[in-house]
Specification:
8 helices; 8-stranded parallel β-barrel; alpha/beta; 276 residues; TIM Barrel; 19% strand; 3-stranded antiparallel sheet
Length: 276
């Protein structure tokens, strides 16, 4: 496995996306993942990455097939993101499926009812991306599609070899799911991996205040440096390795610490874990 870093980890700095490449290289990374690049910036990012010898290994974007005016409208918008992925030169792209039951496509009472529509949107996108040589995937992200078995059901319903999972080992906690068990459920479907960690406090206690948010079940979470939180990083990565995953693992830091320190320490911790 190769340790990489997501541009999202540098969000605190509010830098031009092109500048992040040099920062990642200074921190010891040899590959980078990008989130939400504007079309007019994508070529500059690719050229700088090639100049620096820093491959862009994945492109991650938001999507919500339940919230647009129509499924076709949202699919067309995501097609545009696939076009940006092509400009970046990546071979993998993650998009969301949905954050939940949002108007106007809100006439669903369960995930199972929404599943056919979500699968249709994902399949349309992956067929479009496949023609460009880009694999697509959905992440355990956005509360509504966060559980490992929901992600697995969606991948099964899409039923396309070009479509799989971006396994974020920390995000399972947002749905109050055990990361070790959940990563094992999705390991065989993994096309890319995020290394993320969280601090956790039970929802029955007092609100810890600024910097914390609540899981779907009401527990309190705060982003942590990889290795400092409660996520069993070693066990999750071992589950993925045993299933045959040997690709990139991108650090996605969203803690309160200075991001450069958080990313640097997280890389050191992750590489030490992977070495064992």
């Amino acid at each position: 496995m190769q340790v990489s870093v997501s541009s999202y980890s540098f969000s605190q700095l509010k830098k031009d996306p092109v500048e992040i490449i040099a920062l990642a290289k200074e921190l010891g990374f040899t590959a980078i993942e990008y989130t939400g690049v504007e079309r007019e910036t994508a070529l500059r990012v690719r050229e700088e990455a090639e100049r620096a010898g820093m491959p862009i290994i994945c492109y991650t974007v938001w999507a919500n097939f339940l919230a647009a005016a129509s499924l076709e409208e949202e699919v067309q918008r995501v097609y545009g993101q696939v076009d940006i992925a092509e400009i970046l030169g990546v071979k993998k792209m993650r998009h969301d499926a949905s954050g939940g039951f949002n108007a106007p496509l809100s006439a669903y009472n369960s995930f199972d009812q929404a599943l056919p529509l979500l699968a249709k949107g994902c399949r349309m996108v992956t067929e479009y991306a496949a023609a460009k040589g880009i694999e697509t995937m959905v992440e355990n992200h956005g509360f509504f599609c966060q559980d490992s078995l929901r992600v697995a059901s969606l991948i099964g319903a899409v039923n396309h070899p070009n479509f799989g999972a971006l396994v974020d080992i920390g995000n399972f906690l947002c749905a109050d799911e055990d990361p070790a068990k959940a990563s094992g459920n999705l390991a065989a479907m993994a096309k890319h991996v995020h290394a993320k960690d969280f601090h956790l406090k039970p929802g029955a206690g007092d609100n810890p205040g600024e910097g914390w948010f609540r899981s779907r079940g009401g527990n309190y979470l705060r982003g942590a440096i990889v290795g400092h939180g409660v996520v069993p990083v070693r066990q999750c990565l071992d589950n993925l390795r045993r299933a045959g995953y040997d690709g990139s693992v991108s650090i996605e830091f969203e803690g309160m610490e200075n991001c450069l320190a958080g990313i640097r320490i997280g890389r050191q911790n992750l590489e030490a874990i992977m070495a064992k």
